[in-house]
Amino acid sequence: MEQTEEATSMASDDVVFGLWMIGLVTVFMPIYLRFLYCLYHHFKNIAAYQIMLHNGIPYVVQIAVEWFFGVFTAASFQPPMLFNKVCGGLWNAAFHAAVFNLLVLTVNRLVVICNIHSMHSLFRGRPQHACIVLQYVWGLAMFASYMTPQITIAYSLKSHAFEFIGDYGSAAAQFDLAFSECVLLVSALIYGAIFLFILKTRGQRRIERHELRILINIFCLHLTFGSLIAAYHLQPMFWSSHQAAGVLNLAIVVKCGSDPLCVLATNRSIRRRFLGCSDNVVAHPVYHLCLVSRPMGIWKPFGGMKSSKAVASRSRAESPGELFGVCELKAHLVEAEKALGDLRTHVEALKKLIEPRMMPSLPVFEKDVTRMMNSIEDLLVRVREARRQNCGIANSSSSASCVIQEKKTRKVLPRNCLKGSCITGGQPSTCVMNPHEDEGTLIYSFTICQLD
Questions:
Q1: Which ranges does the record mark as transmembrane (predicted)?
Q2: What's the order of all strands across the beta sheet hosting 427-438?
Q3: For the whole prediction, is pTM greater than 0.70?
Q4: Beta bridge partners of 446
Q5: pLDDT tens digits, residue range 212-241?
Q6: What CA–CA distance (Å, rounded) separates 228 from 95?
């Protein structure tokens, strides 16, 4: 009779813990995936956000494993040991990769905030990718160790949590704890150094707001991780029953799922894109480049968007007498040639006006501008190659064609038109560009005029 009651009680506990695990992961997973998508899609040029992206990927793997075992728990089903061992190893290897990433994020804040020039290259290009790859190599190494017969991480239906078993299971658990505490200690020392640096240089050096915002985001990630480690140490003092491990396992799910919420609460830029409130193209905090319907292009080198919405639209011809599409391509070509020269001018001006110590992200700005100039040059090469091959392009709505000719000089036309070589219905037409100034922002609008 007592055994029956005990079995019934355990089955009831299984359902409760299983439903909690399923419910928490079901709520947090879409939020986390949307958060990672925003980091990947909108903040490709900011190193700290790209590193933060790879902090979230292991946690997504971890809570995905928790969801499957939540289903098993609710059904009171103990999975086969081999499956249990592989999933448990993957679960803990993802934890190690995420903790390693936290250390990389902390070092990134130290380099950027304290402006350590000799280490700036560590978070650009291949070195940055190497740091990201290294975290996954560390995770794979831990996963390989968990596949040995001496160490097994398996989900226990009785305790509703993953447990270390095997000859060296206890040692592996102690290593996990020591590694986590070591990362927290090193991070705390680095944060102390950053705080002292900010106090010391206050009034002498202005730190960019977005860099401080990222610092707060990463500090919140460490705070949730530190809270989990503290709960591990304190839970025997308040909860000594067999359910303590299950409650701590639920705390792990909550910790993983709350990380994006903490970042969204403290970072307005990510929050707006997460909620879909902004369509602006994010290139770099120093400058923005966008396309709008009319005027066609806006270049504002020192930040800020003139338009609240940025959309790239393709003009359509409404009648045979109007020339859009192909002729507009020529206008874009002329604009690209001029923008290429403007970009070089802006880079040289920034080098003279902005001292490196006042702007640690200048090398990143130069890299982005160089990439943009290379893209424009590639566009020019493709268009000129098409011209050399005598490619004809047809406009389906107006039956208009445009023969693109290379023009390196400007010809004075009415309203300062730049000449293209376009033909519409036998009547010569010209693609024109009318540059004008509007409150410090250079705006280019494209119209059509007829030649006499």
A1: 15-37, 57-77, 89-112, 133-157, 177-199, 211-232
A2: 288-291, 297-300, 441-450, 427-438, 422-424, 400-402, 394-395
A3: no
A4: 433
A5: 889 999 999 999 999 999 888 887 766 666
A6: 12
